[in-house]
Structure formats: C-alpha cells, structure tokens
Amino acid sequence: MLRMHCEMLHSMGYPVVVQVGSGVAALELLQRAPEAHDVIVCDLNMPGMDGIEFLQIVNKSKYCGKVILLSGEGLRILHTVQKLLEGGRLIVLGALQKPPQRAALRALLERWQPQAPSAPVKPALSFSPQELRAATRHRQWVLHYQPKVEVRTGELAGMEALIRWQHPVYGLIYPDAFIGAAEDCGAIDEVTQWVLFEALAQLVRWREQGLSIQMAVNVSMENLRAPDFATRVVALARASGASPQNVTLEVTESRLMSTSSAPLESLVRLRLHRFGLSIDDFGTGHSSLAQLRDVPFTELKVDRGFVQGARHNQIIRPILEGSLGIAKRLGMTLVAEGVETEDDWHLLREIDCDLAQGYFIGRPMPVNQIGQWIESWRARRPGLIGPSR
Questions:
Q1: Which among 236, 204, 199, 202 has a CA at the least distance from the CA of 218?
Q2: Which residues are paired to 97 by β-bridges?
Q3: Residue 14: CA count within 13 A, CB half-sphere
Q4: Are the C-beta atoms of 278 and 216 separated by less than 8 Å?
C-alpha cells in the first residue's frame, strides 16, 4: 500500500517522495532536517506509534509544513483529527480514506504551494477612540470590493464592500484589527455610515456606467441596536439614488443575539424597505436554525469551512448540500464564500449553488482594479461554465 501511494505521487509529477515505515522513523527524519520536507502524508493506523500521537509530536516540533491524513477508519474520525490539529504549527490540507483516489489526492496537493520566506510577524495593534474618529475626519478609510458571481452562468452578480484603513504609519490595516475597538468605543456608527455612503455612491456610479449589480455591506450588531439605524440607512439610499433592492446588508450569525428586540426591529424595518438581508458565516454560530426562523433573511452565506475541500469530504459536503436545500425551501439565495480552487467551483456547479465568492474568483480589490478584473474574468468564464468535472 505504501509503495502504491509513492508511485501515485511520482506519476502526478512529484519527483522526491521519501518513504518511511513508522512514526518513529519519520520523527527521526524530521528532527534531522525539518525544512527539507514540504508535505507529510500520514496514515493514522501506523505500527507502533499511531498517527495521532505522531502528529501531536510533530505539531509541537520545529516542522511547520503541511499534512494530508489517510486512514481506513471512518470519515468522522479523520475529521476529528483535523480539528485536533487546528491552532498548531501544522497546516492540514485535508483527509482521505484509504485507498485514496488519484483525483482527490491531486486536489489536496493543489492547495500546497512551496513556502515563501515568511514576513516578520507584526505586533498586535490597538487603537483609541480618538484615533478611530480621526481616521474618519482625515479620510483614511478606503473600500476594497470582492466580486460575487452566479455559479450557473458565471455572470458578475455583485460586489461586497470591505473596509480597510490606510494608516499613515502602519499602512493598509484590515478590519479585524480595528472593528472590535470601534464597536467597544461607540465609533462603529461613524465607520458604518461612511462605508454605506461610499458603497452606495459607487453602486450608483457603476449603474450609470451600465454595470447593474448588487452591493453587499457588513453591518455590526451595535449598528442594529441603534433605534434610528434603519431610518438612517433608508435616508442614505434615497440621497444616493441607490435602490434598496440592489443593496444587501450582511450580519454575522455568531454576533446575532435573540435576547434583545432592537436588532430584530432594525432588520425587519430594513426588509420592509426592500433591503436584502444576509446571514453571514452561516454554520459557525450556536443557533443557526433559530435565526433562519426568526429573522426575514433573503440570503444565506455559508462559511468557508463548509466550502473548501467539500467536493471530496463526505462530512462537509452533505452539510453544504443541506444548507442549500434549506435556502431553496425558504426562498433564499445561497452564497458560498471561501471558494479557493477550481475543485470548489465545480462542486458548486454540481449541487446547483446560486452564488460564489472567494479568491478563486477574485480577491478584494480597490475600485480602480475592477475593470481589469472584469476583463480577466470574462476571459476565464467560458472554461468554467462547461460541464462539471
């Protein structure tokens, strides 16, 4: 079996494949030269030391490469081992049952790229309320846009507006570094107001240029708690000339709270004014079905953890297909985010998903790069909307 795996890897174009017969032998090899090995293909059922013990030791060692799990055990065991390794140095490309299918192994290896020298880790940043409000005054916020496309036709369906901070000292800062601080200090209303104003204005400019698409904007739970939030959003749309039917407000599922009526009131009022409502990162919170029951969402956005690698994962794929079934039965649009490979894309075509978003389609980009992306996508599209493979 081991020799068969090596021959399969050689035939796929990987010339250097080192074969060892036990976990102890593999550890000795990694201790001598941890940087010499890019990917470990590990059978969980090894003689002597089992694969879980081996991987836990490797996960605490100097080796920081990738691993593919193999086992003749059930898929749920493989999936649980993947979860055990999260947060360590190892990056798990995926898990396969034995004997691995050639196409499935190739799909996992395509996620691996030779490691470039890593950039120095930047220290965590923290910002005061004064700095956040100054960013608004000094026009330091910028928007990047990430495309969403129709899976069936490949047509551009919309853009998601994503805020960045063009900081005079630290350069371009992503929202994870400052949105939490803005929520804590009460500056989030100003930030979201700015995002909505700019995104709606850009939506109108695109419409005037003949590009009729949807615009998605993320809103915070703190925004929704404000009694006048819906009123302000409606007023912004009217002032900009944007149609609410072309605007979707995304709310992260894990931040939704059922204990307060204020967010629900804001969401219902926005829906009455024909804004779309999206439940973002679906599947990561603790009360997904309750949110679908209680909130008039029009769109369900499945978290990337249920999309990436799902084509060959018999645990994740049924969850993705089940989410699609729920969305269709409720009359909602399903968006799959985190689409990073052609394999992910073809799965979405196989299951008849509505919309797709992710690096395989296009990264978030400044507005002046959208035209170039449209031309590039137009050239790629014919090869992606043929029969699924």
A1: 199
A2: 71
A3: 20
A4: yes
Rounded mean pLDDT of the chain?
Answer: 88
Pairing of strands 247-252, 355-357: unpaired
Considering the entire predicted model, what is its pTM? Answer: 0.78
Peptide bond before residue 99 is cis, with ω within 30 degrees of 0: yes
Which of 194, 195, 193, 181 has the alpha carbon at shortest distance from 131? 181
The strand pair at 276-282 and 214-218 is best described as: unpaired
Is residue 236 within 8 Å of residue 204, measured between CB atoms? no
Residue 41's contacts (CB-CB under 8 Å, 6 or more residues apart) are 5, 9, 67, 68, 70
The answer to whether 325 and 290 are in contact (CB under 8 A) is: no
CB 40 within 8 A of CB 26: yes
* 284 alpha-carbon distance from chain centroid: 12
Most confident of 67-76, 96-105, 293-302: 293-302
Characterize the bridge pairing of strands 365-366 and 299-302: unpaired
Domains present along the chain, CATH in parentheses: 2-109 (3.40.50.2300), 129-384 (3.20.20.450)
